[in-house]
Amino acid sequence: MDLVQAPLRGEVLHVDHVSVALSGRQVLDDVTFSVRAGEFTGVIGSNGAGKTTLLRVILGLQRPGSGNVTMPTQSRARRGRSIGYVPQKVLLDPDMPMRAWDLVALGLDGNRYGVPIRSRQRRQEVDAMLKAVDAERFANVRVGHLSGGEQQRVLIAHALVSRPQLLLLDEPLANLDLGSSQEVVTLLGRVAAEQGVAVLLSAHELNPLLPVMDRVVYIAGGKAVSGTADEVIRGDVLSRLYGHHVDVLRVHGRILVVAGEENADLAAHEADVVVGAG
Amino acid sequence: MPPTRPTSWSVQADLSMGQLVNWIFEPGFFASQPVHVAILIGGATAIVSAIVGVFTVMRGQSFAGHALTDVSTAGGSGAFLLGLSPLFGFVGFGMVGACVMELIGIRRVRGRDLATGIILGASIGLAALLLYLDTSSGATTGATQQILFGSIFTIETSTIPIVISFSVIALGIIVAIYRPLLLSSVSNDIAAAKGVSLRLIGLLFMLALAVSVGLSSLTIGAILSTALLVGPAATALRVTARLGVALIVACVIGVGVTWLGVLLAYDSYYWGSSRQGFPVSFFIVALVFVLYLISGFSGIRAVTSRRERAVLQGAEA
Question: CA-nearest residue of chain B to A106?
Fold first, then answer.
């Protein structure tokens, strides 16, 4: 066994110098960071920065060109199963005959062949999970009939019910209104602490996550810096990451990152602004 | 009819019951061997179609199911030309078509629809040629009718074991891939992340679909088999939120309309004075359509959604 790099205490995921090129374009460039149990990590970046590719590499759906991803306590073959995953777009058809309860139950053993066998333990696990995400009251409602925020909670329960070490969420707040998105963030923060699961969440807005986020992985142009929000969201750090001048403004407890295009005409520049509710 | 106590009152009731039974079931219905075969094969086919159909509707693959009916048409007419049972052509061609559609149609919905459309077109063209050859070869009559609109009353008893075997294969596939099939119907991304082979699941499901379409091509005809595949399933999905219940409701509807269709077709021979029965397929498809309409307009749908809304409102209060 390779012991050159001793895993950090409680480390559940190690992304080690990962680079990915897709059809000639460098999507990820030497990305390194770690995630520890019970921590809440936000992968922040604008659209096209490489967030989804990073998550796909972690899930094992995309092979990195160089570098690798390890989960110190899991073998490579079991990696996918020890990650709970909530993808970016899940279109739940209103006519799909699936109740919230059924979808969560599918999180237990949906990857196995055959039909599910009912058991008391199975029922209790699903019930408990629905309760944990505060979704028990719509357990018997079709998932397609639920609101976006409610669906997100059910999908989180689906991802968590198999007790993974890592919960991965791709832009879970993208299509939610402010209230629902705050609810989801609060829920995730609580779940991370209660269940000791590491939460890794991608988002293009930084501010909604500030109350619960332990660490930030900030991605721009395929490169990443990681650390606490105070370490990373600074003008000098982000200027180095973007390769040009970036302003970080703190207004009323909110953080505003203004990263203009390097050679763009100032008047017409397309500001890469990361904003949100604080 | 339930047995009744032999009182003078019930004897009278028995008499009128007997007349009613005779009125519903024209003489000879229960003694007729073609009816026995039709009831058995029609029932098996309806169950397979209903169960595969629920997943087809859920996965949004009704178009693939329809295209497979055209592939089946070509296969059936080819088998006819070679003097084989059309069933082998229906199922055999359908399975090949299913594989080609799944393998060239990449996972993108658009790619899948294009691949499906192209195969559909090619199949109809081939069927046009083969059916022409079938009818012009002279020795056999009614090939077109039999292949396009089914032949439930003229199935030979030797076909029964083959139909049962195909049914077991199709249902066996569905049982084997039940959970990953559901998971990938919810989200391909989640299923892939959990290590499910989307290609294998997609292919196996298409094979089950091909077998199902082949079987219903035999009973209600190649171009009508979509009705038996999609109709009962779509109706069931309208009235219940539970998959298990939907599967049972779809089976009951499928078997019900098939058997009722067989009965009406048998009885229709005695309607009027022309002594010419109506085709079974007409009745089955008409019943499927009527049930679907009823499920949409009646209170059934309203009741289920009202119940769900009550749950949600109760939760908010």
Answer: B183
* Closest residue to B177, CB basis, from A92, A96, A113: A113
Query: What's the one-letter identity of residue A150?
Result: E
**Contact indicator for A43, A200 with CB cutoff of 8 Å:** yes
Q: Is A60 exposed, middle or buried (0-12, 13-18, 19+ CB in 10 A)?
A: middle
Interface test with A, best of B189, B239, B313 (most A CBs within 10 A): B189
- Dihedral (C-alpha) B234, B238, B242, B245: value to the nearest 10 degrees? -70
Smallest CA–CA distance, residue A87 to chain B, in Å, is: 7
pLDDT, one tens digit per residue, over B125-140 is 998 888 888 888 765 5
Give the chain A residue nearest B309 (alpha carbons): A141
Each residue's pLDDT tens digit, B142-175: 778 888 888 788 888 888 999 999 999 999 999 9
A101 in a domain, yes or no? yes
Could you tell me the fold of the domain covering B32-310?
Answer: ABC transporter involved in vitamin B12 uptake, BtuC (1.10.3470)
Interface predicted TM-score of the whole assembly (ipTM), two decimals: 0.85
State the residue range of the domain holding A21.
11-274
Whether residue A116 and residue B179 make contact (CB cut-off 8 A), yes or no, is yes
CATH no. for residue A77?
3.40.50.300
Q: Would the CB atoms of A140 and B176 count as touching at under 8 Å? A: no
